[in-house]
Design goal:
heterodimer; A: alpha+beta; Trna Endonuclease, Chain: A, domain 1; five-stranded mixed sheet; 22% strand; B: alpha/beta; 14 strands; elongated
Chain lengths: 176, 707
Amino acid sequence: MKWDEYYNVYLILHDLCENIGNSDFGFRIQGLLAHALSRLGIKIFEVNHQGHPDIIGEVENRRVKLEVEAAIGKARKRTIEKEDIEAIKPDNKNERGYFAVLDCGLPPEWLLVNYQRLKWRSFESLSIIILKSLSDKEFSNKCTEQFFNLVLLNTKRLSSFTFSILRDRVLRGEEL
Amino acid sequence: MKFRINSIAIEGFKGFTDQQAIQISGKHLFIFGSNGYGKSSIMEAIRWCLFGLTGRPEEIVRNQFYRTGDCFVELELIDQNGDPWKIQRRFSPGGARSRMTILDPQGGERAQSEVFPFLTSLGPREGTYIVFGGPSQLPSRSRPLESIEISDFGKIIYAYLRLENVPDLIEKLNKLIEDQKEEERQLAQEIEEEEENITDELKEVEKQLASFLQEPPWGDAEPPTSTQTKRKTKKLIKQLSQQKGQESPEDLNGENLLNLAQRWIQDLAAPEQEELNKKISEIKEQQSKVKELHRKLQEENQVIKNIERQNGEIERKRRNLLDDNDPDGFRKELENFNRKIEQTSLLIEIIKKSQLYLENHGTKECFICLTKIDKKKLRGNIEQRLKQVEPHKLQNIQRRDELKTSLEELTRLDEGLERAKQILKQHQDEYGEKETLLYKILNLEKEKPTPENINSFLKNLEEQVAELEQSLESKQEYRRNWERKIIRLREEIRFHRYRDKKQRFETLLEIGLKPVEERFDELVEFRESLEEIRQVLSFELKEKLRDALPLISKIMTKVYKHLTNQVSFDRVQIELGEQSGGFSPKLLVRVVSSDGLNLPPLDPEQVLNGQALSALRLVPYFVFSRFQREAWELDLLLLDDPTQSFDVQRIDLLLEELGTAANHAQLIIATHEEEHFTLSKFFKKEEISIIHTTGFDIRGGPHIEMG
């Protein structure tokens, strides 16, 4: 991935957020992550507009639960609520839970933090740097790569992808 | 090495004045005496000697009335070989804190940590093997049992389980984790700020680059590479160096090379341009000089003509005024009229006086010739004569004034004419000078400068100027060509600079912060390791406690029951609570009834009477001393008024427990209830020393009697 592409994605994300507002932006990012995960071979079962967790998927008989957030603008600190952590707590050995944050800084990147590394940190104000350090680097990089591909392939259509479009398509297993 | 106290020496401490010694000989010591006679001071002196005072000013232990002001306590100890050791504590006047000294049998000073390592690690506030009892530490309604005793119970239990360091360790871990968190936070903030700075700069460069590329100097062509720009720069400087006749420098970079090129172009073009400019400026100066002279000549000419015309006018006026006369005739006529006027005036005066004489003196004859006259006729003659003479005088005056005015006008005209002639002369001179100058400029020997030859001359100059300016323009164009090339190269360099800067910031964001982020990862992992350790410790400690608490509760219940013989709330139960975010267990002392009432475990403070509470409070001492009998160098059990709140019949039960403790510990016990202490039932006579405090005075201190 070249830096010009990073910069493009950065501009696209900021434009999108400015056009649709922070709240809707968060939902769409959630939908786009579900598609990125799908491209990584994770079958997506749930993409929730309300309730926890935000995304549930499965790969190789392992369930994956994710809480999703976007960090944009100067205030890039996150306080992880207890329910966020509870939502991704694995119920058994075959489950994995991740707290996924899209850092919209330069370069933009997904940070996926495993539940095991977050469980002691509820109510802590976590900066992006700490989340980055806690994140599963390999999984985060893969998500980032797929996410970038999605954004760059669909730049012109991106603003027309509402949360429900993104959710319905990924649940049907359709690509964007 | 195990020690017992052999003797105690006290001086200037609390109520004590001059030094008093109490011989114990390694036995158990019972101090009997009424309240206020110094029993507690002896107990406190021992404690002070061992631990000093922490958290409070030591000044309070000094006897303010003791003459030397010294405060000193010495414990002589005997070790298991019978050799004497000394622990001394002295608080000298003027000192901030007391000082403890330990002397071995040879009199050598020894470090406390070397001889009594546990004294070092456990001070009086934490210590449980040196046990102090005393009224001030007994539970009361205002001071709940739990706040005093829970820590004691906790420490006893941790000591029993050999886990006494674990809670401290968890606390230390808590602090360490908090410190790590803070360090993490600070470093994260620094990284974040650095990232934000770089991002801002990168965005700025992106903006500059985008603005630059809107109209790039290379148009639609591909942007030049750095190498291409360098090559072009070198070529340009080489061309210029040939023209300049200088070597092209090898050691300069692009920007400096272009600066040099700029200077060279200036050097090359400037002298010629200066020369041309100088020539143009000279010609233009000459042009303007000729024009100016020409203009001035015309003006002078006009002025001369005007003056000449004015002079003609004056001459005409003068001629009219003189009317073929001359100014001297004018003057003679004026004098003539003046004489006539004078003559007439005199005549009028004579006539008027004659008239007056005639009227006043009524004469009948002429007053000059004395001829007889008719007065009436004479009066008529005089009046007639006056009528004749007076108009004549007036005519003469009028004529004289006219003459006078004409003469003045003539004088004025003459003066004006004279001045005008002078001015005319000046202008004519100036005209002549300018004309001569113009001759010279136009290079005319004899020919008079005419508008034609002046215009011809000026036209010639204009042609010269045009030619020179054309030449100058061509030189400037030559210079501009070079400068355009330099500007273009400068723009290319600017482009490369932006692009390099952009790449630098991108690299910084991508890999520049990696080392710091790796260091940060290490910090985070370290903190996670600490948290894991804390979690494991906490879990294990709680597990151990859960396993051990039933047995400990049972042992405590046994001692408690023995001391109190309680019917209800007869069992002690230690429960596990939580504190410090759930990592450090908290031990709660509860009492339970075995009477089948099915009551939940309750806080003793809420349900026990004073005696039972006092007894419960003593339980840890006995239990603890059983557990730790082999562990301590100095195994002392100090109890001050332990039977306070006790029923008399229960004192024997306490003494029985003390008798058990005395198997390993040296007891030092103070009480005012001597009559209830039947020592012979529980102690052999040779095992105990007894002293009595029989009185107290402010100068001599406590009165102590042995035996």
